[in-house]
Structure formats: structure tokens, C-alpha cells
Write a structure and sequence with these properties.
The structure is a homodimer. Chain A has about 190 residues and is α+β, with helices and mostly antiparallel strands. In chain A, about 15% of the residues lie in helices and about 40% in strands. The first copy, chain A, is globular and about 50 Å long.
Chain lengths: ~190, ~190
């Protein structure tokens, strides 16, 4: 299991980790229950406030925990957690305690009751900002109110889902096109 | 410039290409004008109908073309188009004709007036499905009504943006975790 030393990260820049489209783990808590789900359908919506749109199907056990607590943590797992990520996505919090079952460490958040998953590369503490599309599309808009990011490595090796059990693992990182940007576009 | 032979692809499965989070090119047309923009903030919202949420800032020249025509094409560029993608993102349709300037081929769509970008690996023809979040968040929901996808290679090498001129290029593709899925989850 990976263990990362983390530090505060500017919430307006979480796009650095989410815009490339990784599978994330959503942790939540309501009353005496916690849960974890995998999520592949999400998007950055705004820098400030730091808004993330998330599709959480009402078929998921986490749906009610998130809806009723109005918060969650978006955790970024790295490729060395791939087997655990797949197992989390193929089990339900109705049947098991996923933290215990998969040997993950719930760590207290700064602003929320929902726990961080300590083994993840980054943890984004989120408060519900807009639920007007929950009924229509199962889409929650969250504001990231606190971001914890690993001090090393600089960029994480992440897991990206294509459906049908197929994954893409993040590859080369490059800044070689940066010279083509206009100053105002950086 | 890459040239791909393409065939029809099931619209309910475009998540295969969009869920991993690549930068895409949005082409649009209104009256006698066409344009192309880069887009990194998008998400899959539903399989059937095939819905994609897209953030198109009102600061973009394409915003009005898309809003008024109520359609666009989401085109998937591969890594060999990276320089062109960056140049498209760093110029405006107010000043130049991007198809001409960057040597891209506008190809007639099946269901739309907006042109496909022939050099891209895939082209998803989209009709506007919901604009109730355009004013609040610049978010358009599109329905993919037709998908054209390259016959080879099986998976494209795509470009993923982190901000600040930094990109991640898609890496290894793997099906080795597929055996961990429950049949109903595939």
C-alpha cells in the first residue's frame, strides 16, 4: 500500500489532478456509517470557487450518504492501488465496510466528517454546492474547500477507465509545448 | 498529419474515449462561420441517451456559434496533433479561420451542419440537449447522435491537460483487472 506525505494545495488548482480524467474514490459518512465508491464521471467546472461536477448514480450506496451529509472527499488513487480500486467498484457498502475490507486508513478531514483515504495521492474535501441536477442527472456539484496533495512524486501515475474492464494508465508528462502558449493562457 | 479510416461506432459507448479525460476539439458552425476550440472540461453523463456535459466559456468565440446553432462536433485528437491542439487553444476564431490556418480538413457531418475534423481519431456529432446550466456555469449538455471512430489503432494515444502548459500523454492500456469485475459490472 502506498503512503504519501501530504501538504496543503491551492484548491483553485485541483484541475491539475482532475482534468486529466482519472478514476477517483469518493469517501463519505452519514451518522455512524462510512463508505467508498469509485467514480469516473466527473468534471472541473470552475477555478474559484473550486467546483467539480460529479455523477453519483442513485443505485450506489454512497448516493444517500452524500446527499444527506451534503459532503464527500474526492480521493485520487495511483496505479499501485488498481486492484483495490476495482474491488471497491465491484462491491457495495450495503454488504461490507470497505475501509476494513480493503485495509484502507480513514483519516480525519479538516472541514468534514467524511474521512480521507490516507493511501491516496491526494484528498479533496468537498462541500455540496448545488444539487439542482441530482434528480434529473444524478449530478452533484461540489466545492473543494481543502486539498491535501502528496509532496512526491510531482505527478501521480493515475488510472483511467474505458468501460468493459479496460483501463488506461497515465503515461508521459511533458512541458515541451509550454512555449507555444500565450502568457495570458497559462 | 494523421489520417484515419473511420466507421460508425455505437453512441452509447463513446465513454470508451471520453471517460479517460482527453483534451478534445469542438468544431461548430453558424451561418457562414465555422470554428474550432480546445476543451478539457467535459464529462460523460449518461449512456442512453448518450449525454456529455461540456464547459464552454462565454469568453470563447465558439460559445455563440454553439449556442445559436445548438450543435457541435466533439473531435478526439491524438498526440501527433499536440502542436496543432495547443495552437488552436492559443488563438481565436475572431482573428483567423482555424481550419485554413492549421491545415485541417472540414468534413461534412451526417446529421449536422457543423463540420467534422477529418484528422482526428474520432468525431462525435452532438445536438444540444439541455442549456439550463449555460447561464450559471457555461455548461452545455449534448446528446451524441452519431459517432465516427478510427478502425485502427484500437485505442488512441490521447492528450490530457493539467494546466500551466503541462500535458499528460495516455500510457499503457490494460485489461488485466477485468477478471476482478462482477459480470453485471461490465
Amino acid at each position: 500500500m502506498p503512503r504519501y506525505t501530504k501538504k496543503d494545495f491551492p484548491v483553485h488548482n485541483v484541475r491539475r489532478f482532475l482534468e486529466p480524467g482519472p478514476i477517483v474514490l469518493v469517501s463519505s459518512a452519514f451518522k455512524d456509517e462510512t463508505n467508498i465508491m469509485t467514480m469516473g464521471w466527473h468534471m472541473v467546472m470552475e477555478f474559484t470557487p473550486s467546483l467539480i461536477g460529479c455523477c453519483i448514480s442513485s443505485a450506489n450506496h454512497s448516493f444517500e450518504l452524500v446527499r444527506r451529509s451534503r459532503q464527500c472527499v474526492i480521493n485520487l488513487p495511483t496505479a499501485d492501488l488498481a486492484v483495490t480500486v476495482v474491488k471497491i467498484g465491484n462491491s457495495s457498502g450495503r454488504d461490507i465496510d470497505k475501509f476494513a475490507e480493503f485495509g484502507l486508513t480513514p483519516k480525519p478531514a479538516t472541514h468534514l466528517r467524511a474521512p480521507l483515504i490516507d493511501e491516496c495521492y491526494a484528498n479533496f474535501e468537498c462541500q455540496l454546492a448545488d444539487m439542482s441536477w441530482v434528480k434529473k442527472y444524478n449530478i452533484f456539484v461540489f466545492e473543494v474547500v481543502k486539498a491535501h496533495v502528496a509532496t512526491a512524486p510531482k505527478t501521480p501515475k493515475t488510472i483511467h477507465y474505458r468501460g468493459d474492464g479496460e483501463f488506461m494508465i497515465s503515461g508521459e508528462e511533458t512541458r515541451k509545448y509550454r512555449r507555444l502558449f500565450k502568457p495570458g493562457m497559462l
